[in-house]
Amino acid sequence: MLALTETPMPTPTMTVNPDSVTPGFVGFAAVVILLVAVILLILDMNRRIRRVRYREEVREELDAEEAARAADEATETDADLPIVREGDDDPEKR
């Protein structure tokens, strides 16, 4: 059976000087470089997203213009077709 006697808990002692364990200039420089890199990546991402959005708008406008042009051509070609009457079998008259 274990002894139920209480043993004192050791108290931690300060063996390291807290002023010498700071990140210092190297840590500050690493954080600044990381911050600049993240900001540049965000700006680049926004530029690329904007470019994709503009391309999609231009594609939609071109598709609408093409559909309108095709509709105009369809109505013009229907009006240009010769009228064929029943009983007209002569291909030279067409």
From TrEMBL:
<feature type="transmembrane region" description="Helical">
    <location>
        <begin position="20"/>
        <end position="43"/>
    </location>
</feature>
<keyword id="KW-0812">Transmembrane</keyword>
<feature type="region of interest" description="Disordered">
    <location>
        <begin position="58"/>
        <end position="94"/>
    </location>
</feature>
<keyword id="KW-0472">Membrane</keyword>
<keyword id="KW-1133">Transmembrane helix</keyword>
<feature type="compositionally biased region" description="Basic and acidic residues">
    <location>
        <begin position="83"/>
        <end position="94"/>
    </location>
</feature>
<protein>
    <submittedName>
        <fullName>Uncharacterized protein</fullName>
    </submittedName>
</protein>
